[in-house]
Amino acid sequence: MSDDPRLAPLAASLPATVPFTGPEALERLRGRPFRARLGANESVFGPSPKAIAAMEAAAREIWKYGDSASHDLRHALAAHHGVAPENIVVGAGIDGLLGSTVRLFLAPGEVAVSSLGSYPTFDFHVSGHGGRAEKVPFRDDREDPEALLGKAEEVGAKLIYLSNPDNPMGSWHSGAEVARMVARVPEGALLILDEAYVEFAPDGTAAEVDVEDPKVLRFRTFSKAHGMAGARVGYALGPRHMIRVFEKVRDHFGMSRTSQSGALAALQDELWLTHVRGEVAAARERIAAIAAENGLGALPSATNFVTVDCGGDGALAKAVLEELAARDIFVRMPFAAPQNRCIRITAGRPEEMDLLATLLPEALAAARARG
Amino acid sequence: MSDDPRLAPLAASLPATVPFTGPEALERLRGRPFRARLGANESVFGPSPKAIAAMEAAAREIWKYGDSASHDLRHALAAHHGVAPENIVVGAGIDGLLGSTVRLFLAPGEVAVSSLGSYPTFDFHVSGHGGRAEKVPFRDDREDPEALLGKAEEVGAKLIYLSNPDNPMGSWHSGAEVARMVARVPEGALLILDEAYVEFAPDGTAAEVDVEDPKVLRFRTFSKAHGMAGARVGYALGPRHMIRVFEKVRDHFGMSRTSQSGALAALQDELWLTHVRGEVAAARERIAAIAAENGLGALPSATNFVTVDCGGDGALAKAVLEELAARDIFVRMPFAAPQNRCIRITAGRPEEMDLLATLLPEALAAARARG
């Protein structure tokens, strides 16, 4: 089936690919549900009960459009971060905001640099807007600021993408290291700093930069630590003159009213965040222990997932993933070698961790038997 | 404050405008809330109680991303319309889908034709993607298919936008007339048919076209008759090969999980839709009666709003709107002459209609006294 002849040339050039397949789509392909949903780095511990209550209350007001300025949420975020409301734009998740950012700052034919195997949705937007993606490898299972800066300089990149902590490895750099990287961003380039997982990271991991620094836009989300992936709320932090330009392209009435209310309530429930951080820390230790019981190594993690080295090549890790799926456990794996020797397991509740402990030995044995 | 020098040239060329200011933003400017929110064509009658219950239930599952394929909703919509699921793409409201459509089908420099004073968000997307907007006037307070087709032929337009029933006048063409227009869409062009209000229209208003007709994409929403504007759920109906291309650019995990659940429940509650239609019909009659009591004409409406002719020029209508706002009644008015002689009043509950009946005479008198 060929494309429509009326498609714009850029659109015609794009493949009809999906950055990755969602858990429900996988369940439909399999013909049965997963028992443990540990592959999408969602927070199985859920959102704050206060956020749920706020969303329930807002459901009765859903006949109203959401506030086009996300005023209350933006002001609360500004107070939380100690910046001005004009330093913040709220959007439908980091995914949506990354799309707007690429559209605003990357003209067709220009180059964005990121790490081989990093978040595929960023590349989806780069190619989707006619940009070119240049890649550098991870170094010691971490994103490599030196290599990113070097490549950006070499190719005259407009955008540099770094996730910190990073997905899919769970590794991280200190906020001070990131600040040193920001200072070295080449003239004419902009660092896209994705801090989706930073609430799970050790103190000092958030970038130590001035919000008015024009070399960097930072991205945060309610999808991870706040347990609201299905609500689609993210935000970008940056200099006023750069945040302001999002008004040129954003979907002004695109925010769900329930999501705005839920995020505001979630932000104010610090106790719940502390509770979730504790549960995630315990689950990370449990995953590492399960890995060790099976003779596998677990990478240190500053996120709500642990990347487990299956001790072989990509084919073995893929087999382990498939054998876990055959036992109704959903996990994912990094895309690019040599990180694709690993599988990535989201922090789960004790009962899901028990299931993993029970079934990983079988899955490993079956995967090894395939070879 | 000048733009950042790193902005892409197209982005740099765009004004930082908002298609229109939302009610909450107006309330913040005024410093006090409206008592009657009758300006955004929301359904004050709310969504189906079953939709509210579904959203409340889904709030507890909000830690999960929404289904990236909106599978259940898309299949239910397909059954509802008697088409295949592959004929439907679900997105975050018609606004978001219009943005994707323009991005897919209008290359920079190409032309989109629409009516002077029609839905501003379409033009926002056209200019936002580097297209050029060409306009034709309304004819007898209705969109003018002949003029739209003629202009499209003359300028070699790629896109033609028609809303039916139309916003802001509430007027309409029969589905058979629209089908005749579709048949005459010039080779190489595509009709964007916005049917946001069609559930309020007389039987036979929905376009009588084959869903596989490659000359037209139709757009529907849960924001109006289904009372879920704040949930951001819309969909496009069209040929499989054209619906498929949305996969190239859409935000795959961009749908709110609560909104997906709410829309599915709303779609299945036909009784509620019938109830809302009845309330809206009664409110339309009430608005027309209030207009008549004040010596004003009300236009026939196939929507959930009534456009009232203030009997003067744009300045008078603007004064009436301002005097209503000063009395805490929020309405809007059409943007372009000669339609800007009118104000547009959303169907309200009896208490809001009573407020309008009480305050319109004062507002009119005050507006006339200004001149």
Describe the model:
Two copies of one chain form a homodimer. Chain A is α/β, with parallel strands linked by helices. Chain A folds into two domains: 20-46 and 271-370, Alpha-Beta Complex (Aspartate Aminotransferase, domain 1), CATH 3.90.1150.10; 65-268, Aspartate Aminotransferase, domain 2. Chain A contains 13 helices and twelve strands. Chain A has helices at 9-13, 23-30, 49-59, 71-81, 93-105, 120-128, 145-155, 175-183, 240-243, 257-268, 270-293, 314-326, 350-370; strands spanning 36-37, 88-91, 111-115, 132-136, 159-163, 190-194, 216-221, 234-237, 297-298, 305-309, 329-330, 342-346. In chain A, the strands form three sheets. Chain A has a seven-stranded mixed β-sheet, with helices on both faces. A three-stranded antiparallel β-sheet of chain A has the order 9-10-12. A two-stranded parallel sheet of chain A has the order 1-11. In chain A, helix 8 links the parallel strand 5 (159-163) and strand 6 (190-194). In chain A, helix 3 runs antiparallel to helix 10 (257-268), helix 4 runs parallel beside helix 10 (257-268) and helix 5 (93-105) packs parallel to helix 6. The radius of gyration of chain A is 21 Å and the shape is globular. At the A-B interface, helix 1, helix 2, helix 3, helix 5 and helix 9 of A face helix 1, helix 2, helix 3, helix 5 and helix 9 of B.
